[in-house]
Design goal:
alpha/beta
Length: 219
């Protein structure tokens, strides 16, 4: 196991726009909602409704654009997994940019239902293209044993202690394909995380609030 680098390039703190709502790990949803926007690909410019759930953590278009610039060499025909999907913004963006498929995991029942509706709006709701799995991510990940994914998104709620056990479950069940990539986002003050020897950090950024980086599996 190798330790996660404690030194990352500092960049200016991104604005957190409420219109690009994403993550929730809560089981309680508010009545009002917002929208996410797909920024590129076949559904470019589409705005999709999302629920405002307790614990929601927005993702800006700016950060999403940075991530998908990183992912450009890996996206075409990729099999993806969005582990803490929330609104599904990352997985939907990947599908828009011609990923082959995406599985979404989301704990919140209302957010999962809305994600299914949005996939139907995009006519991307067939099982070969997208599947939504409602429940606890740490319980669901082992059920994917025997499958592998080319791109995985791990952006859990902050301060819940979910990053390390999630990465451990992915490694234990061999869910990341050879030369596959794993996006991780977590709070800036999180203690260093150990990674398998064959996982290498290839892209990374840090703000005063969060760290985000791209890991590649090289066997």
């Amino acid at each position: 196991m190798i330790p996660l680098s404690a030194t990352m390039k500092r960049v200016s703190r991104p604005l957190r726009a409420s219109s690009t709502a994403k993550k929730s790990h809560s089981t309680h949803a508010k009545a009002k909602g917002g929208h996410i926007r797909i920024i590129s690909g076949q559904w470019r410019g589409r705005k999709l409704p999302v629920l405002d759930a307790e614990g929601l953590r927005p993702t800006t278009d700016r950060n999403k654009e940075t991530l998908f610039n990183w992912l450009m060499p890996y996206l075409n025909e990729a099999k993806c997994l969005d582990v803490f999907a929330g609104s599904g913004g990352l997985g939907l963006e990947a599908l828009s940019r011609y990923a082959l498929s995406c599985d979404f995991i989301e704990l919140d029942k209302s957010a999962s239902a809305q994600l299914k509706k949005n996939l139907a709006l995009l006519t991307a709701n067939n099982a070969q293209t997208a599947s939504v799995h409602q429940g606890d991510a740490l319980a669901i990940l082992p059920t994917f044993s025997g499958k592998s994914f080319d791109i995985m998104f791990v952006d859990p709620p902050f301060h819940k202690g979910l990053v390390a056990p999630t990465l451990s479950a992915i490694a234990t069940n061999n869910l990341l394909s050879n030369n596959g990539v794993l996006y991780v986002e977590h709070e800036a003050n999180l203690a260093p995380i150990s990674l398998p020897d064959h996982w290498q950090i290839i892209k990374e950024k840090r703000t005063s609030a969060l760290c985000y980086y791209l890991i590649k599996a090289v066997w």
